[in-house]
Specification:
8 helices, N-terminal domain of TfIIb, Rossmann fold, binds S-adenosylmethionine, seven-stranded mixed β-sheet, globular, alpha/beta
Length: about 250
């Protein structure tokens, strides 16, 4: 099993390769999330923490919209890449390395905390998930919003999904093929994912395969954990309602 810090440390330089056009996708995600925040009464220049920001796929476009964003992530390499991407685009935001299970206290509460693209399922045990949600709750005043997106594990477990079909990206005359193969535990509670990327390098192909483990976090489990951690009004929004490509959970700090 490869822990997320090692996995994302290794992936940070290539993370964009999983998208045809990472920044176009990031901007679209930012537009959808910005709209969701506004729907919940949170408008720029509100303070938003992205506690699993990675290379900044959501944090950067939200900051570009005028939200005051503080991004943090377990992976120092991902945070360093987010810093470079922000500087190259002239986007201002605070970035730091932090484990979501033990976020440092904020000097002022945030209006919202976000954690997108299936980050919480990296927390493999109930105790780790509870610690993360308590720590997130600690950044908010009562009424503050938490918004997270995860894969639809209810459907994935039901359908015994075995991976992500390869996508072929032809960019600047060069071909790359990216996909995932998944290996389930016997009880279908965790899944080891193997992310592969094949790149045409002249006449040769270069291949990279990187692996990590997720918990198949079901909606009822996350809803219950949010409630225990001090959140109320837990609601799930599906893509046809939210416009986001994964199910989104929103909850308010009690
Ligand atoms: C699928 S990536 C999504 C990153 C970013 N939200 C995006 O969409 O590009 C999951 C992220 O969760 C982070 N992560 C996993 N476990 C974490 C932890 N305990 N504390 C903070 N970040 C964590 C990883 O380092 C990784 O950047």
């Amino acid at each position: 099993m490869v822990d997320p810090r090692t996995f994302y440390g290794d992936l940070a330089g290539d993370y964009h390769l999983m998208f045809r056009d990472w920044w176009a996708s990031a901007q679209h995600q930012g537009d959808v999330l910005g709209e969701l925040l506004r729907r919940h009464g949170i408008h720029p220049p509100a303070r938003v923490a992205d506690c699993t920001c990675g290379i900044g796929t959501q944090a950067l476009p939200l900051a570009a919209q005028g939200f005051r964003v503080a991004g943090s992530d377990l992976s120092a390499a991902a945070v360093a890449r987010a810093r470079t991407e922000a500087r190259d685009r002239g986007i201002e935001l605070a970035l730091s390395v932090a484990d979501v299970r033990a976020l440092p206290p904020a000097d002022r509460p945030f209006d919202a905390v976000v954690s997108c693209d299936n980050s919480l399922p990296h927390l493999l045990t109930d105790a780790d998930l509870a610690a993360a949600l308590r720590s997130i709750r600690g950044l908010l005043d009562p009424g503050g919003l938490f918004l997270a997106s995860t894969r639809d594990y209810d459907a994935i477990v039901r359908d015994q999904v075995a991976g992500v079909m390869p996508a072929v990206h032809d960019v600047d005359g060069r071909r790359r093929i990216v996909g995932q193969a998944w290996q389930w535990s016997a009880d279908h509670r965790t899944v080891e994912i193997h992310v592969f990327c094949l790149r045409r390098e002249g006449p040769e192909w270069a291949a990279a395969v990187r692996s990590t483990t997720y918990r198949a976090l079901l909606r009822d489990e996350l809803t219950a954990a949010l409630s225990t951690a001090g959140f109320a009004d837990v609601r799930w929004l599906f893509p046809d309602e939210s416009g986001y490509y994964q199910p989104v959970v929103v909850a308010q700090a009690r």
